[in-house]
Amino acid sequence: MEKQVMEYASGNEMATIAIKQIGYDLMGYYPITPSTQIAEGLDTMKAGGETDLIMIAAEGEHSAAGVCYGACVGGGRVINATSANGLLYALEQFPVQSGTRYPMVMNVVCRTISGPLSIKGDHSDIMFMLNAGWPILFAKTAQEVYDFNIIALKLAEAVRLPVVVAYDGFFTSHQKRRCMRFEREETVRDFIGAKKEEYPFLDFEHPITVGSYMNEPDLIGNRYQLHLAMEEAAKRLPGLFEAYGKLSGRSYDKVEGYCSEDADTILLTLGSSYESAGEAVDELRRKGKKAGTVTAHVLRPFPYEEIYALCKNASNLLVADRQDSYGAGGGNLSLEVRAAMQRYKSSVRIKSLVYGLGGLDFFAKDAVRMLEWAENPDTPDFDYYGVDELKIQDANSEKSGNEMQNRSDDEPFFAPLTAGRTKIGATMVTESESGFAQVTGGTLNATAAVPKRIAPGHGACPGCGIPVNINLLLRAIEDPVVLLFQTGCGMIVTTSYPRTSFKVPYLHNLFQNGAATLSGLAEICYRKQKNGEIPPGDIIFVMVSGDGGMDIGMGSALGTALRGHRLILFEYDNGGYMNTGYQLSYSTPKGARSATSHVGKNQYGKTFFHKDMPQMMAATGIPYVATMAESNPVDFIKKAAKAAYYAKTTGTAYVKALSACPLNWNDTPATERKVIASAVDCCYFPLYEVEKGKTTLNYNPEQAGKKIPILDWLSMMGRTRHLQKEEYREVVEELQSEVDRRFARLKAKSENPIL
Known about the structure:
Blueprint: E1 4-9, H1 11-22, E2 26-29, H2 36-47, E3 54-57, H3 61-73, E4 78-82, H4 84-90, H5 93-99, E5 105-110, E6 136-139, H6 142-159, E7 163-168, H7 171-174, E8 177-182, H8 185-192, H9 218-248, E9 255-258, E10 265-269, H10 273-286, E11 291-296, E12 298-300, H11 304-311, E13 316-321, H12 332-343, E14 349-354, H13 364-375, E15 382-384, H14 387-396, H15 419-422, E16 427-431, E17 437-441, H16 444-447, H17 465-474, E18 481-486, H18 489-492, E19 506-509, H19 514-530, E20 540-546, H20 549-552, H21 554-563, E21 568-573, E22 599-600, E23 603-604, H22 613-618, E24 624-629, H23 633-649, E25 653-658, H24 662-665, H25 672-681, E26 688-691, E27 694-697, H26 710-714, H27 729-751
């Protein structure tokens, strides 16, 4: 047995340690809770020189999977990590990789899939991988996360298939436990062995084609080969577990049982629930009841024989699923276990329960109740656990606040914001003789009288710019408003069920598809008005998105703009993926520190320039594009009014505001207005508009005598304050040069209408 050292670490941290020790070549990733910590931990190691892993921050999980696939084809050892809807977004890519037989490892930190949106842990995501052609190992502890990551790569390269290591989000991923790891990286690398390429892609003397178009009967032959590879994985796993056991002292099997040999009633669970089930078994055994529990370490290839062997002597077998295969009478694990027992003509009575959805806690007392439920001959073969208790709690809960007393469910809390209430004439937009929108009014005092569409009270951090910017935008719009929020901080802090902050129709969709969703909604609305199904009149459709949503959702936004739907795309740009703990976005300033762009001896922060989304949108030819900042509120309001005018008369309008985030910018709420103003004055965030193809520079700090060096702005935020050091002078000079170049282009466009 090789020498090991103890780590007090979480599952995500143990995955990171294993990945570093293995010595992977590349990681393609996109942040998503609760798997984000893996990329963050590896970036910290990279900044400190502990690993030379190539880390590519894709603009979404679908692209991250493509990055990984390309690197695998090129002969690299590749790792990925994702969760929930990120997994589903990339799902199309996974059969591509297994079908072309390129090995890699992906950690799936299991989480509830949307909708409605939830970030807690269950198994509704991993079950979508059952038919992807990837072997799946399921770890129930942080220790197993480490061990299975090492075993997974050896398996992947032995059978030429990509492999998943799955484990419970938050329960296993975040809870720290005492774990063991190998002291020497060489121990891990010797166990895995040198990488072999049977068909090198980059051999130009022997070129190959990967991913051919394939018809019958070749396709069925390909699938048969994939089947055989999975069968080979099933054969190899016991030997791999045994070899790893000799190396580490920790032995594994495809399945694991506790007190199952003589049990009358067995509870079969997956993941971290197994330990709670074990406690329940001990409690029931003390009472004289023969209870047992079983779990699976391998989901694919499914261990039919091994599960039968552990459960065959029981009278009752209860399979507990942390997801449901809706309409099938149980979750996927239940269905597979039933098939396994039927295959061997078992007489065991099998029941199934769905439990723990959305990360609902599972304790030993719950396992006791489940086992007792399974023993009862009068209980059904399938049900949900805990729903009745929730209904009772709901019925007994007291409604808070005097305002909630004696209210019916369909009675509105606020008076409806009809056009009669919002149209006060504070801002008027007309078409000038030159054909451009002309704004009158729009003063701060006058627009303050426009009723607020967002109620006071939300969960945003102190100093957050999101509610400030949204309220500024909406006070310029006097027509009825429909809001769609893409996933992000703005959505999370305003719609925590059963409450909502919105007094107008509100819709959420995931941030890769908000623009497309709103375009469909708008078109149906216009049709209903045309057909007389809803009252006529102007309605302003507004999509609200952070810069993260305009990364992963860039394709959807550009497509919506190109189609020219009559709506507003509003981006609040706080320069990072703040909702998941501040990872770099494509709008993060170059050199900025984030959870995936650390500063260390080998890294100075983000390594590439910020994305210029307004210019991308302007290139689509939409009638109106503008940038705005709360430091210039009148300019902000007038541009918002123009955006609404073009959205209801012409086509898509895109407006972008620089939005403060004191928590992750690492400054103070009291200084945010100054920080925003400095971003404008150093020309990092210039204020301009592109109206019907004509660029107008609305504020020129050079002419106003207020232009400042970009370092003055960078020095105001903790995330970029390190750039003051002499060692980073070149980075600052590069950033200053790029900002100056972009501003010079804007000035040239403003001076020449054909540019």
